[in-house]
Amino acid sequence: MAHKPRKEMIAETRTKLVDAARHAFGTVGYAEASMDDFTAAAGLTRGALYHHFGDKKGLLQAVIAEIDGEMAVRVREIAEKAPTRWQYFVDECTSYIELAVEPEIQRIMFRDGPAVLGDPSQWPNASACEASMTENLTHLQQEGVVVPDLDPATAARLINGASSQAAQKIANSDDPEATSRKAVAAFKTLLNGLLVNRA
Alpha-carbon distance 38 to 142, whole Å? Predict the structure, then answer.
């Protein structure tokens, strides 16, 4: 039987560890998740975890990166159905907030993530998100949809912060569904303030 290429074995090991950690973080939370439990679930040793991720915190970062990538795909799929660039922008922002009603996303992305890794605006994915928002706002400004005196990069930073705070509020609420409805309504009102002809 031929041996698998080393690159493939490394990828499989990382995937097993991320999958096991994601399950543990999503069910019992970061604080209660035991490294021994998820290395055993993955059929691997602590040494493999340390080698690939450094520590439990590094593994959380990998899990968050995976979930964030999945969220980005879902948000884009929703936004791409929009009839206009403005509606695309609104749907992209609000659908991200609405994902905070899902238990795994609540716990990992919006409760444990900020508690362990700090301010989400400093996470590696934040700059890519802000860059995309800045580009969209720049196009909307060029098309005369949003106010001409807006600085797109500054607005993108503020909008990104507002969406993150809204998602965290939902995730930490006793009634996430009701909180989500209120947060999305308030968020849309804020976004409408950018329009030249306000709805």
Answer: 50
Residues 6+ apart with CB under 8 A from 22: 63, 66, 67, 104, 108
Burial zone of 83 (CB within 10 Å; 0-12 exposed, 13-18 middle, 19+ buried): exposed
What string of pLDDT tens digits covers the 199 residues of the chain? Answer: 556 777 778 788 889 999 999 999 999 999 999 888 888 888 888 888 888 888 999 999 999 999 999 999 999 999 999 999 999 999 999 999 999 999 999 999 999 999 999 988 888 888 888 999 999 999 999 999 999 999 999 999 999 999 999 999 999 999 999 999 999 999 999 999 999 986 5
Q: Tell me the fold of 64-193.
A: Tetracycline Repressor; domain 2 (1.10.357)
Q: Domain extents for the chain?
A: 1-54, 64-193
Q: CA-CA distance, 185 to 182, in Å (whole number)?
A: 5
pTM for the predicted model, two decimal places? 0.88
Contact 20, 52 (CB under 8 A): no
Please give the DSSP secondary-structure letter assigned to residue 168.
H
As a CATH number, domain 1-54 is 1.10.10.60
